[in-house]
Structure formats: C-alpha cells, structure tokens
Amino acid sequence: MPPVFAPEPQTLLTRGWSDYALLDSGAGKKLERYGPHTVVRPEPQCFWQPRDAAAFDRPDAVFDPQAQDEDDDGRWRFAGKAIDTFPLAWRDVRFTGRFTPFRHLAFFPEQAANWEWLDARVRARGSKPPKILNLFGYTGVASLACAAAGAEVTHVDASKKSVAWARENAELSGLSDHPIRWIVEDARKWVAREVRRGSRYDGIILDPPKYGRGPTGEVWRLFEDMPALLKDCATLLSDDADFLLLNAYAARVSGLSLAHLMLEATQGRAGRVDWGELALSEDGPDARAIGLSFFARWSA
C-alpha cells in the first residue's frame, strides 16, 4: 500500500523566538535580530517596501554579496567592532552564531519549523530512543534538537569544520555524553555502506545543498544525485520507522517535485507524504512571510 499523497501544500512558518526575529523586510532585504545583534541581509523575494526603512540604516552588521547569486560569497560590514561569534539558543539547544562569508550565520532560522516537528516526533516515540540519521548535518542544530528530545543520532557532513562546530554546539548544549555519532564523510558513500551493512534508522533527515564537495573531492549535484540517495535512505528505514524528511533550497526545485520524488522512494510503505515550503514570518497582526526552502516528508 503506497503512502497517502497530501493534495495541498503546507507553509510552515517560523516566527521569532528569544534569540531570533525577522524584524522587517522589503526593497530586496530583510532586517533580522540574532541574539543581541541586528543584521541586514539581501533577499530578492522581498519586492514590497519596508515598514520602517530607516531601521535598515542602523543595523549592527550588513552583508554585501560579491554578486547577486545567493551562493556567491561576500563580506560583512559592521557598525562598530567586527563580531565573530556569539551564543544563541533554541529551546534546550545551545549553539554558536557565526558571521560566515556565505550570507548565513552558521544556521538557518527558517528550519525551526522542522526542529519543532522533529522534536514532537521523537518525543512521541516514548521511552524507546529512536535512531535518527542526519545527512548534510552542518552545524548540528537539527541533530541536537533530536538528541535533546531523546534520540540516538548519527550526524554526517562532508565538512570537517562543520562537524567540529556541531560537536562544539553539543558541548554547549550539555549533550557531549549523549549517544551522537559524528561522521565526516560524503553522504552518498556513508549511506551506501550503511545499506550494505544492513543498518536501520527510525528517522532520516536530508538537507542537502544544490552543489557541494565531499572530503576527498566528491562532487554533489542535487538534481543528478538526490534520487538515488533518497531511494537508498528509504532502504535504511526500519520496519516501524517514523519519518523521512527532505529539505532543499535550490531555486529550480519545488515542494511538489520533492513530494513526487519522496512518493516514489517510499512506494512500499503506508503512511503519508506531506510537502510545501518553509518560511520566515514577521511578528504582528499584519506579518509578512518569506518563503525560503521547500520540503517533502514521509511519516508513518
């Protein structure tokens, strides 16, 4: 029996919490608060006008891209002394914000909608800790959200630096002694070996880039490589698995296309395939929201 295919998309909104807020948006930019710091970053989707244009002139940091392509690097301009790192938190997870040369600050705040969902799914499993695999795990906030909820986690990323940051975040969160495996490896190679070993997981998270390189020069291309990887991930799901979550940021992808790929990969299972986009929302009664990534997820 194949999964039930959700007929309509969902928009999962991330609203502000104590250490993050989308304060305003418009004129191709967004004004955000990260901990105590106000930040302006480019956002071409914001065709509308800001509510308070003057506020965009007095942030603590502004990102200047080298080109309009969102993947190109650039530099940060600071109103005062340059800021390197600073502490942040989401629920029980503590992590370090970093002013990277790639527009983001070492995590993606719109993913908080997924963290909430993952937290609820893990806690609903009860006393038996589920085994979770997080591929392309980056700085580990999703891994730590699952761990804090009680899961045993395998965290995989091709970047040695990112895994080191994730381990630092685990220490900040008081989760250093929790059952988390830290793997620096190409996701496709790791999953292929896990399939051969007969490993099984109760939940799998995939948040791949549209392009990347593995630790020994392997090349990752989303459209070419995702179908086979997702199929292998479905093979790794245990008989009573709970979820398989896929997220993507590529401009040419859509929630609907990810959903059909997910449906194909999970044909041998019951359950449900949901799909849609993740968005950041301003606060207030007339809040505007910015769609930033697409997701599809199979759940039991």
What does this structure look like?
This protein is an alpha/beta fold and about 300 residues long. Helices cover about 25% and strands about 35% of the residues. Strands 1, 2, 10, 11, 12, 13, 16, 17 and 18 form a 9-stranded mixed beta sheet that branches. The chain has a 5-stranded mixed beta sheet with strand order 3-4-5-6-7, with no helix packed on it. Strand 17 (about 270-280) and strand 18 (about 290-300) form a beta hairpin. The two termini are about 10 Å apart. The model has no long low-confidence stretch (mean pLDDT about 95).
Q: What is the fold's blueprint, element by element?
A:
Layout: E1 4-5, E2 10-14, E3 20-26, E4 29-34, E5 37-42, E6 61-65, E7 74-78, E8 85-90, E9 93-98, H1 112-124, E10 131-135, H2 141-148, E11 152-157, H3 160-172, E12 180-184, H4 187-197, E13 203-206, E14 211-213, E15 219-221, H5 222-236, E16 243-248, H6 255-265, E17 272-281, E18 289-299
Parallel strand pairs: 1-17, 2-17, 5-6, 10-11, 10-13, 11-12, 13-16
Antiparallel strand pairs: 3-4, 4-5, 6-7, 8-9, 14-15, 16-18, 17-18
Name a few traits of the molecule.
nine-stranded mixed sheet, five-stranded mixed sheet, 6 helices, alpha/beta, globular, 300 residues, single chain
Number of helices: 6
Radius of gyration, CA atoms, in whole angstroms: 19 Å
User: Which percent bin holds the helix content?
Assistant: 10-25%
Q: In this structure, how is the largest beta sheet organized?
A: 9 strands, mixed
SS-based structural class?
alpha/beta
Beta-strand proportion: 25-35%
Q: Give the strand tally.
A: 18
Mean residue pLDDT: 95
Uncertain residue ranges? none
N- and C-termini, Cα separation? 12 Å
Principal-axes geometry comes out as globular
SSE string, helices as H and strands as E? EEEEEEEEEHEHEHEHEEEHEHEE
